[in-house]
Amino acid sequence: MSFEYLGKNYIPACYVKFLESSGARAVPIFNNLTEVETKKLFESINGAVFPGGIVNVSTSGYANISRTILKLAKKTFDEGGYFPIIGMCLGHQILATLVNGPTDIRIRTDSLNMIAPLNLPKNYRDSKLFRSLSKDLMKTFNKTLITTHAHELGLPLELFRENKTLDQFYKVITTNVDRNGVEFVSTMEAKKYPFYSMQWHPEKPPFEWNPEKVIPHFSASTELSQYISNFFVNEARFSKHKFASRKEERAALIYNHNPTYIAGINEHSIFEQVYLFD
């Protein structure tokens, strides 16, 4: 969605609230940073969220910054450090595309404004992401229309079965089907690295309220959202990165910017609040 009449770049506030709800603070990562600036910021923060949106998954500023962060995160882990990444919707697709190569590997799916169950398999405890989930919660999440999907493109499951690069790098945890029965990867995690992603939106149920969108707000939906948030923030606590000074840290925090109540300006906005830049 374009907010160009207010600002060229934006971050939906729901991603910030998602992190803050588990005790983290947010730092915006702008898509026009140089490689040197990106590396410096990377060494100052404890994890990265690759959010949803509509940009080119190979050539956009978002893709370029994500590529640099992914490369640095892998190098950090290989050298004994820790830097988790979580991708949602477009971020999920970018994490797969960056590992596979420059080709856009997505297919069309009829899954815009759709809700679905989580579909955890019986061996869900073999995953890092869901290993702490209780049986009762697993059953609740699987039988309830709990995940919100807002995408017209997806990652086909057969691609992961046939593509050695993707199959060796990622473990597919859940799949869903669109309205036409097309199966796509809905949750995955890296086998070696602390990288996690989902095609669905864990950040939406507690914080987005547009009645035109099918966003579940019952307790199980917010519980799943909080579970994912708690998991990722706990992962970030393993990172030893920090800012060079308290002054630099204060200057980088999202607190230097104010969210705009965009739904108060445009009743059809898909977001309640947005941080607008430029």
UniProtKB/TrEMBL annotation:
It catalyses: (6S)-5,6,7,8-tetrahydrofolyl-(gamma-L-Glu)(n) + (n-1) H2O = (6S)-5,6,7,8-tetrahydrofolate + (n-1) L-glutamate. Residues 27-208 form the Glutamine amidotransferase domain. Its EC number is 3.4.19.9. It is an enzyme of class 3 (hydrolase). It comes from Paramuricea clavata (Red gorgonian). GO terms for cellular component: extracellular region; vacuole. GO terms for molecular function: gamma-glutamyl-peptidase activity. Belongs to the peptidase C26 family. GO terms for biological process: tetrahydrofolylpolyglutamate metabolic process. It is found in: Secreted, Extracellular space. PANTHER family: FOLATE GAMMA-GLUTAMYL HYDROLASE, PROTEASE FAMILY C26 GAMMA-GLUTAMYL HYDROLASE. The keyword Signal applies. Pfam families: GATase. The active site is at 89 (nucleophile), 201 (proton donor), 201. The lineage of its organism: Eukaryota, Metazoa, Cnidaria, Anthozoa, Octocorallia. Keywords: Hydrolase, Secreted, Signal. This is folate gamma-glutamyl hydrolase. The keyword Secreted applies. Its main location: secreted.
